[in-house]
Write a structure and sequence with these properties.
Layout (H helix, E strand, L loop, with lengths): L1 H17 L6 E4 L1 H7 L1 H38 L5 H55 L3 E4 L15 H11 L6 H7 L3 H10 L1
Helix pairs in contact: 2-3, 2-5, 3-4, 4-5, 5-6
């Protein structure tokens, strides 16, 4: 909500200072563009492989923990109180280690995603700036789930961004550029991005 108010305040300040000058606005869906440019698809595939590998490691550790827990539950009837307390403490420690391992995996994957997409978003930003300057846009906003509620499809620069990105950074030969290049693809893909 704060971002929407901030965007509105900036917009009002800009339009008040320009008086009757024409303000031309556009928007891009950077997440959709990331998913549709070839470099983004490659990055997402690498991230998926990393995630699957980390998930396997987590599953192994979780299975080991579950086995220890099951053994403890079976043995606790015959264990002395001191031994029971020691095993319970050991089990608590292993549960904490498992939780810490999970948190670290999430942190590692998030950092890797940021690293892999940072360069792509920087390139996209430069292309958006070029499009805006070439076509006379005063401002280009990002379409997000919490931000842009409605805009005419004619103001959507996402397909142009994807086309230019793939042409410039290799990927125009792949199937992704054709799919996102057509104007008919834009309305169909917007509701999916909006959720």
């Amino acid at each position: 909500m704060r971002n929407i108010l901030r965007t509105c305040a900036v917009f009002l300040a800009l339009t008040a200072g320009v008086a009757r000058a024409e303000v031309k606005l556009g928007f891009v869906d950077l997440q959709r563009a990331l998913n549709e440019v070839e470099e983004g698809r490659t990055a997402k595939a690498a991230l998926k492989r990393d995630f699957d590998e980390k998930q396997k490691q987590l599953d192994v550790k979780k299975a080991e923990f579950e086995k220890l827990k099951s053994e403890f539950e079976k043995q606790q009837v015959v264990l002395a109180d001191q031994a029971k307390r020691e095993k319970a403490a050991d089990l608590d420690r292993k549960a904490l280690e498992l939780q810490q391992f999970f948190v670290q995996l999430q942190k590692d994957l998030s950092e890797r995603e940021r690293e892999m997409t940072r360069g792509i978003f920087e390139k996209m930003s430069a292309i958006v700036r070029e499009i805006a300057e070439a076509e006379g846009f005063s401002m280009v906003l990002e379409r997000t789930d919490a931000g842009l509620v409605y805009a005419q499809s004619s103001l959507d620069l996402t397909n142009e961004l994807i086309r230019k990105y793939n042409a410039r950074y290799g990927g125009a030969a792949g199937g992704g550029a054709k799919k996102s290049d057509g104007k008919a693809a834009s309305p169909a893909s917007k509701p999916a991005a909006k959720k």
